[in-house]
Amino acid sequence: MNITNQKLARLAGVIYLITVITGVFSLMYVPNKTFIWEDPKKNIQLFQEFEFLFRLSIVSEVLCYSAFLLLPILLHYLFKKTNKYLSRLMILFVLVAVPLSLLAISHKLDMLDTLGNDSLSQIDAEQLQSQIGLYYNKIKIAQIFWGLWLLPFGYLIYVSGILPKLLGVFLMLGGIGYMVNFVGPILFPNFTQSIIPIVAKIPSSIGEIGTCLWLLLIGLKKEFRYED
């Protein structure tokens, strides 16, 4: 089979776009609509008000991680001639991240069971809050590997020259940012109240969205062929 890397790059861009869109929807937009840490009882009302949106977020999150699993495999074919070990390392980190992320979704399914009661008075607000906490604890562990995979990915972009080096720099900084946001709250209780968590997320957002759009709309800076 003879296939151009330009086509592989565009396909990777499509998969990356699916990952980004479904991730933003399920991990940012829906939680902002349904999760309020300070008021467990209000959570129940929000969940019931946005029940379909919450159910849709579960499907979206599964789709996100499924696409995420495929992404580094496609990228491996683009970068294996640059450094086959680092391109494999990308896959390894994602292979750890995806099962952890999917395991976290099981707690969303538990939330659905808890919310299955018809009467608000029968729903245990504290139990629901505990399930939200368990979900986010597993997501935090998964985020370690969401960050780690960006380090070899960013480095491969930087040294290969097939994508803008600046994108590689942002991806590597983004990987470090994930580590900062994981370690910070553990070491410093007031960490989340500072501006650091927001600043630490910026490089990964620029790097990942920028790389996604570049692959999708422009492709590679250098054209070559991969034969298998």
Automatic annotation (TrEMBL):
The chain crosses the membrane at residues 12-32, 52-78, 85-105, 141-159, 166-188, 194-217. Keywords: Membrane, Transmembrane, Transmembrane helix. The keyword Membrane applies. It comes from the Bacteria. This is DUF4386 domain-containing protein.
